[in-house]
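From the pipeline queue, job 12 of 40. The input is one protein chain; the requested action is below.

Action: predict structure.
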Amino acid sequence: MASDRSGISEIAAMTTEIVGGWVRNPNTAIPKDDLIPFIKEVHDTMTGIVKQDLQSGLVQRAGAPAALPEIAPPVRAALPAVTAPAAPSKALAPEAMKSLEGSRAFIPVIAHEGQIVAERVWPTATPAMRKKFMEIMKEHNIPTRSDGTPVPRTVDGQHIADKRMTVVDPIGGGRFKMLRRHIEVSYGMDYPMLLAMFKLSKEQLPHAGPAYSEQKAMQARASGLGKHSKSRDGGARKSPRARKVAATA
């Protein structure tokens, strides 16, 4: 233990490193009901070790005499907020915070405390939208960033694939020329909701493959769609009223 750090900060750092290492291990999994007891057990164990070391004089706070004050017993309120990976405790080591990014271990806890987390991640969304987002995250096992935002699925890190002909479904990972119909049928969401869920812009995640849209536009122009119809003599087509007046003249 470094001599220039307090016992309490050491407890938080060690607890974070142990939990982070457990989460990073692909061979381990933490059920929802066991996560909070697991963190508390690690915290209590580290507290006992540090307390013994302080009392025996093996470690000492910087600038403090050998006789150190008693460390207050750990309380649950002092634990980092397990309900939200979006706001980690300041005591978390930076490397431990980074290790939790993209992890799926906290998804059951996020869903359990969905209202608290959803309000922080999507402050401008409606309650119904937040509920829908959390349900989709849980159902499709979508990982999150360290701020709680869901991580969209991509192809080689891109939302557009197949030479700009398709768009990648950020929830399921499939490729589609047109995304709107697919997300409406598969997830019960519209396109603006999808953008809001992943905090993406239309430019980042278009509703159709850009090259596919360009191809369809060219076909429409070639077939004459969108052009004003012309009469046989080259003039503009007359309105029904004008044709009636001309016929009676």
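Job complete. The beta strands are 160-161, 166-168, 175-176.
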